[in-house]
Design brief:
The structure is a single chain. It contains 9 helices and 6 strands. It is α/β, with parallel strands linked by helices and about 230 residues long. The protein has 2 domains: about 150 residues, HAD superfamily/HAD-like (Rossmann fold, 3-Layer(aba) Sandwich), CATH 3.40.50; about 55 residues, DNA polymerase, domain 1, CATH 1.10.150.450.
Length: about 230
């Protein structure tokens, strides 16, 4: 593996939220995914199958289905976000070990998500790790332009005064690490541990061998613990 980018100089730790700070197999995102399908179907008055096809097409082409729905059909972000994030967060269990590992990391911790702050707050509250994060940069802060758009990362870095050369980015989608790596961030791809069934498309699970991925882990807590004990 190319480990030319170590963590010795890192003073800012940036985390994606969904499927990164909690395991894929909780399938919380699967609930959101289903709600998106319902929203698209109702808004466009199409069948569930057709809605699914449109949803995935926009997700691929625009970074999020929401962006596609806004661009192509004039959907209001507020309505969309309120609907798709109305899910049951109870499958998430408190993760004090991960909280302790994050707390030990030297410097600032921030969240960069394509979701909403409201959703992020609920997730962090369930995990019991919210106190460790200085701020959440969400899709509203990104002016509704999702990762992997370059301007979203640039706005995040600017808004929070982050030096990319001194920061690390943790993500579950390899395509969302291309720009951070170009900007000089140390990149970590968080992948499913392989023991549980995960509901993901093949392309979402690709990229672990890509040049823009510096490190790969299927155990975020263990990975972070090693960084502060070595």
């Amino acid at each position: 593996r190319n480990t030319s980018r170590p963590f010795t100089h890192i003073d800012t730790w940036v985390f994606d939220l969904d499927n990164t700070l909690y395991p894929h197999h909780v399938n919380l995102w699967h609930q959101v995914d289903a709600r998106i399908g319902e929203f698209v179907s109702a808004f466009l008055d199409v069948s569930a199958d057709e809605a699914r096809r449109i949803q995935k097409d926009y997700y691929r082409r625009y970074g999020t289905t929401m962006r596609g729905m806004m661009t192509e059909h004039g959907v209001h972000a507020d309505d969309y976000l309120a609907y798709v994030h109305k899910i049951d967060h109870s499958p998430l269990q408190p993760n004090p070990d991960m909280g302790a590992a994050i707390a030990k990391l030297p410097g600032r911790k921030l969240i960069l998500t394509n979701g909403s702050t409201d959703h992020a707050d609920k997730v962090l509250q369930r995990l019991g790790i919210g106190a460790h994060f200085e701020a959440v940069f969400d899709i509203i802060a990104a002016e509704l332009e999702p990762k992997p758009a370059p301007q979203t990362y640039q706005k995040f870095l600017r808004d929070h005064g982050v030096n990319p050369l001194m920061s690390a980015m943790f993500e579950d989608l390899a395509r969302n690490l291309v720009v951070p790596h170009q900007l000089g961030m140390t990149t970590v791809l968080v992948v499913p541990d392989g023991t549980k069934e995960v509901v993901r498309e093949d392309w979402e699970l690709e990229g672990r061998d890509a040049a823009h991925v510096d490190h790969v882990t299927d155990d975020l807590t263990g990975f972070l613990e090693k960084l502060t004990t070595s």
